[in-house]
Design brief:
The complex is a heterodimer of chains A (232) and B (220).
Chain A: E1 7-11, H1 16-27, E2 33-36, H2 44-49, E3 58-61, E4 64-67, H3 69-79, H4 91-117, H5 121-146, H6 159-165, H7 168-178, H8 189-199, H9 202-205, H10 211-220, H11 227-230
Parallel strand pairs in A: 1-2
Antiparallel strand pairs in A: 1-3, 3-4
Helix pairs in contact in A: 1-3, 4-5, 4-6
Chain B: E1 6-10, H1 15-27, E2 32-35, H2 43-48, E3 57-60, E4 63-66, H3 68-78, H4 91-117, H5 121-138, H6 154-159, H7 166-173, H8 177-180, H9 182-192, H10 195-198, H11 204-219
Parallel strand pairs in B: 1-2
Antiparallel strand pairs in B: 1-3, 3-4
Helix pairs in contact in B: 1-3, 4-5
The chains are: A alpha+beta (232), B alpha+beta (220).
Chain lengths: 232, 220
Amino acid sequence: MAKKCEMKLLGSGGSPFVTRVKFVLKLKSIDYEYIKEDLANKSELLLTSNPGLQKVPVLFHENEPISESLVIVEYLDEILPNVHPILPLNPLDRAHNRCLAYYIDTVYCPWLKKFMLTRDSEKKEDMKRLIIGGSAMLEEAFVKLSKGGTFFGGDEIGYLDVVLGCYLGWFKFYGIVFGFNVIDEARNPRLAQWGKSMWSHEAIMSVIPSDEIYMNFFKMLPGFLPPRHVHA
Amino acid sequence: MVKEKVVLVNFWSSPFGSRVKIALEEKGIPYEYKEEDLFNKSSFLSTINPVHNKVPVLVHNQKPVCESLNILEYIDETWTDLSPRFLPSDPHQRALARFWADFIDKELYESSKKIYRGIGEEQVIGKNEVLRILKLVEGEIGDKPFFGGDNLGLVDITLIPFYSRFYTWETFGKFSIEEECPNLVAWAKRCLQKESVAKSLPDPIKIYEFILDLNKYFAK
């Protein structure tokens, strides 16, 4: 098992990608040092360890940096394969999991971001419609992949639980601020149940950031609030 | 013994599809090639890729696998006895390879479109973004013949199909990639000496003509 000084995570509070890595570190009982990054004032550490993207999370294992949350998740799974395995073993199941993760991160997540950022009410409605369609697709995927279990991974939390679960805090926030249920009990009953199971899982509960962190992260996103609100 | 049936559904100009072709050829895996007309998508494609309705799709014993990088890992994990392995065995080296492949996958295609589909300032932005990406990636080759070492690896296979588009980018953007990234172009030429790459990459002039046609099509 990795000692605390060997593993460091550079992150910022509300980022779902950081939360995702924290989930896996918790599930695999890996001790680590958390280094908080100010994304409005990027540190030398971030700029030098991740010159391509300059984004969080960055994992440092024995001072070697690894970037991209999904790459980090697979790395952690490979260095500790026998402690709470994350990805399934079968290549076809792994391929299906990775493909859906790609959809969540490159299609579904950008819709969520556009919905949050756009001030045009018509565009907001367009994004809402797309997100509702996406959630319906994820509901179908959940039914297929969970095979009757509580999680995407079956009886235990697996890859897609971690990939989608990192957005749960954001989904709750969207309900509070926008009155929009990304995962809705009536439209997506199995996913809604999955969400409840995730929230009450000890490893997840201890990692999901507080509402205050989301609100602060939300205010930091450029272009969202008109300038007169920034100093309020 | 179960007979392996492998079908690659692709569109000839897709750099993502070329990745899969190279991977199958490198490992010597027999496959059937099916060309999909992207301007008249078949109902077959929406059946095998309902999420994205995109190519390439690898259909292995009637089970579809989508997304090119995902397909490369699937091929590497399924045909484990066939060399070369696209990913190294060391977890940290694997993470680095996945990072760079992901970086190329997410950034290069979108930035390059600004060069041939954008006008004025957008073209310049696209050119600068593409050069930034290529220079960053070039820095990772070092003294090795390929990113994967002595053989083609995940990063080589992810990047090399874009070589067919260098002529298009250079012509639209009025610059020379060889002048800006000589080591990268030297690497590309080494890749082209491999039969798997030479037979999988579309002709650069055909790509240029296709993009000219596409621009006219989108302008309507």
